[in-house]
Amino acid sequence: MNSYIACCGLDCEKCEARLATINNDNTLREKVAKEWSELNKVEITPQMINCTGCRIEGPKTPFCQSFCPIRKCAQGKGFATCGECNEVEHCETLSMITSHNDYALSNLKSK
Predict the structure, then answer these.
(1) Phi, psi at 27, each rounded to 5°
(2) pTM for this one?
(3) Which tens digits make up the pLDDT trace of 52-65?
(4) What number of H helices and E strands is found in the chain?
């Protein structure tokens, strides 16, 4: 599986946080921080927008590194992604992503 597919099935290659990181684009970091702050109703600073990808060596956003329940679950079970789990289609935790993003589940199902 493409190593840029996150544990949850999102495509990190397309993530603006990753793009801001690899391009050292502070304007994009500010944009992402503002959008994510509004979306999550929590303060996210541009300094927090530093991520190379969920399953790629390097920095992660604080949420992805320490708090993401999907990433924690997959890693706890020894899976690269949730696509390895028998409960992938019915997982309540994973549905935080898959209920809003059709591509995530299809990414997890592709090998």
Answers:
(1) -65, -45
(2) 0.88
(3) 999 999 999 999 99
(4) 6, 0
